[in-house]
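Hi, here's the filled form for the chain we discussed.

Project: internal
Contact: R.S.
Residues: 61
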Amino acid sequence: MSDILNCLFCESPHVEVVHDVDELSDYHFVRCQACGAHGPEGGTKLAAVVRWNNPKRGRPE
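And the returned structure, exactly as it came back:
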């Protein structure tokens, strides 16, 4: 994937795609190498790691 992902929490560009969740969709599981935020993200939201399972903020309400 050539798209640059920026972390939603620390804005670091060091976000890696860990694996495809479903090869038939645009969803992947991503992790920020800088702050550790991780979660699923979609092809329509390539700018950020979603607010899910963040080690600093916890799960969303």
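Let me know if anything looks off before we file it.
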